[in-house]
Every structure is written in structure tokens, then in C-alpha cells.
Task: inverse folding
């Protein structure tokens, strides 16, 4: 029977699956057929411990989670954030495709969730903290990738909105300081501040329309931030 060989079989399976992750040539059909054989065996017997649900799937999820965790750590160490999020996006798609190619349908969502946890959720604040840098560079492609990643995890877009509002208010405070420094030269600089913030708002909204699918929550948050920025100019020292 297959059970006594399971430990050895798992090791060989994980080794070949990791070769596939590395882009090396492996016989995917053989891997898939071996995995399917677990379900076939399970269908013909009623053991307390099923080969697929209780042995293979947990091992696959753990291996995948560990690999994604190490990958995220190494990418964060070696790449700037704009390049990191692109690599994370591509790996997520690859792992999702691999699970659909090799595993039972019941495992697809579990694998997807594990990969998102390790590659997005564990680092979502780090990714979002680099929004301002990507926005200043008008790197709309990477901002769109960031938005896609955040939309895949719970509270991801909420985290991104908080960072965007912080970024907007940072710009407002910098411009207001410039206004205060030059106030003695002309009283028209308050109007200049209003006009400059209107242009900033337009830039952010253009970004949201292109990169964030015109997400209404994001647009509303930006308009609220603009109002808060204008209130800042009314505060007397």
C-alpha cells in the first residue's frame, strides 16, 4: 500500500514541485497523477487519516507558506519596493496557476489564502508606506500593482487609503510652510495655496482613476483630505 511510502513520496513530490517553482523541467503530469492517486486511494477506503486531506494538503500548504515567507524576506532585502511588489504579484499568479494545475479544486482557495498571507498581509504596511515615492515618480503601473495586491487582502485598501491621506496632508503642510514663509511679500499667497492644493487633488484623482479603477472610497477619502488641507490654512499661529 501507499501509506508506508508516504514520507518518502512527499519528499520527492515537494522536491519536484520546487523544481517547477524554479523553472526547471519536471514532468508535471506525473506529479499531478501521483497527487490524484492519493484521492483515489482515499475514495476506496475510509481511514482515520486520509492521504490527501490529512497528509498531502497540509504538507503542501506548509511548504508553500515557508517558501513564500522566505521569498518575501529576500525580495524586501534585495529590491526597492516598486520592483518588490511586481515580483510579489507575479509569484502570487504563478502559485495560483500551479495549484490549479496540480491540486484538487478544494485546495485552490487554501493555497491562495496562504500565499496572500505570506506575500501581502505580512508586508502590507511596508508596501503602502512607499506609496508617496511611487506617486511622486508618477509610476502609475506600479501603483496599479499595489492596488491590486491590496484589493486581494482584508483591509488592504483601507491601509492604502490611510497612507494616501497621510501623503496628501504631508504635501499640504509643506506647501503651507512655504506660504507662511512668503506671507510678508504678498497677501495673495493664500489663494496661491488654495490653487496649488487644487492641482494636487487633481493629480491624486487622476492617479486614482488610472491606477485604482476609480475606487469611490479612495476618491471620497482624497476629497476629504483636500478639505482638511484647506482648513489648515485657516489656523492662525
Result:
Amino acid at each position: 500500500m501507499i501509506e508506508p511510502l508516504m514520507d518518502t513520496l512527499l519528499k520527492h513530490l515537494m522536491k519536484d514541485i520546487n523544481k517547477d517553482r524554479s523553472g526547471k523541467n519536471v514532468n508535471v503530469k506525473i506529479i499531478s497523477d501521483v497527487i490524484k492517486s492519493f484521492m483515489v486511494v482515499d475514495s476506496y477506503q475510509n481511514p482515520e487519516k486520509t492521504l490527501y486531506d490529512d497528509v498531502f494538503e497540509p504538507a503542501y500548504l506548509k511548504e508553500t507558506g515557508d517558501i513564500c515567507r522566505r521569498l518575501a524576506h529576500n525580495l524586501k532585502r534585495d529590491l526597492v519596493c516598486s520592483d518588490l511588489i511586481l515580483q510579489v504579484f507575479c509569484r502570487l499568479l504563478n502559485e495560483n496557476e500551479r495549484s490549479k494545475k496540480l491540486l484538487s479544486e478544494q485546495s485552490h482557495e487554501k493555497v491562495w489564502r496562504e500565499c496572500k498571507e505570506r506575500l501581502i498581509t505580512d508586508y502590507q504596511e511596508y508596501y503602502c508606506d512607499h506609496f508617496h515615492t511611487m506617486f511622486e515618480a508618477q509610476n502609475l503601473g506600479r501603483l496599479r500593482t499595489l492596488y491590486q495586491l491590496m484589493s486581494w487582502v482584508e483591509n488592504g485598501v483601507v491601509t492604502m487609503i490611510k497612507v494616501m491621506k497621510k501623503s496628501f496632508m504631508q504635501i499640504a503642510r509643506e506647501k503651507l510652510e512655504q506660504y507662511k514663509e512668503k506671507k510678508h511679500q504678498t497677501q495673495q499667497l493664500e489663494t496661491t495655496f488654495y490653487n496649488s492644493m487644487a492641482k494636487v487633488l487633481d493629480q491624486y484623482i487622476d492617479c486614482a482613476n488610472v491606477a485604482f479603477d476609480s475606487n469611490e472610497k479612495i476618491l471620497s477619502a482624497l476629497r476629504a483630505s483636500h478639505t482638511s488641507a484647506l482648513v489648515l490654512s485657516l489656523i492662525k499661529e
Q: What stands out?
A: Residues 51-78 form the longest helix (28 residues). DSSP finds eleven helices and no strands in the chain. The mean pLDDT is 90.
